[in-house]
Each structure stands twice: as C-alpha cells, then as structure tokens.
Amino acid sequence: MFILIKYGANETLLCNPTCAVVNLLNSIKRRSGHADLTIDVADETGLVKELDAHKYDYAYKHLGTEGTYVLMEKQMVFVDEHPQCAYVPLLDEPTKIFPSFNVRVPNMEKKKKKPTTKSPSPAGMKGIRSKKGLTTGGTSRAPSRKR
C-alpha cells in the first residue's frame, strides 16, 4: 500500500496513503522541500486529484493504494478579475517520463438535485393501508391476557 510521488529532476518519494489527506500533503511538502507552496498531485495522465477539497478523508480513497503521481503546485490566477486555480507540475519535463501527461482538472459540475419530499415519520405511518390492505408502520400488539 504505497504510492510514488515524482518531482524535481525525476526524484521520487515513497508515501503511504493510509492517512488523512492533510497529513499526506504536509509530509510531501516537508520531504520534497516545498513547504512554502500549496501542492496537489496529478496522475500519470495529468488529471489533478484536487486533494485539498478532501482534507480529512483517507488519501487512499482518492489516490488508490498504489500508483505513481506527479507533484503539482496550485497557484491562484486572476482571469478577468475572477480568481481561478492553475496547476504547474513540479516534475522537470513530465512528458518525457509520462508521454500522455496533459494537465487537466476534473469537471466539477454541480448536479441538479431533484426536489425531495419529506417522508412521513413512523408515527405518521400508522393507519396507512398498503396495496394488500394491511396496515404498515407502527407495531401491532396482541391484546395482553390477565392471569
């Protein structure tokens, strides 16, 4: 259960992803000498993982338990006075090592949520008839016998 992080002049860090994302990123920053940067990682194709959005999740949920990743610097860039994130690989010449490397960010389109109706509470279910004519919800008790 280890991942490889490539950076610099083809340097490699061996990391264990069975920890919180925030701890993994702090370890990578310290060990790679990039403590002053905001970092993220991208897979071998250049897909940025945007780990900072999942700081308290286990890293293996987003990275898997094995694989090779490229260390990326996350920069804030202003386009038409609107802030946007730009990612710069911290690996020298990543396309020489990974020929299909092309930096891209996953689409974060917000899915339209269907309006939901409140389901009745179990107390509100008493007396509602199902298709078979039986009552649903609540508990039915047999009359108690006095002895």
TrEMBL record:
Q: What is the lineage of its organism?
A: Eukaryota, Metazoa, Spiralia, Lophotrochozoa, Annelida
> Domain of life, per the record?
Eukaryota
**Which protein is depicted?**
DgyrCDS2967
The UniProt regions of compositional bias labelled Polar residues, in chain numbering, are 137-147
Q: Where is this region: Disordered?
A: 104-147
Q: Which InterPro entries match?
A: CXorf65-like
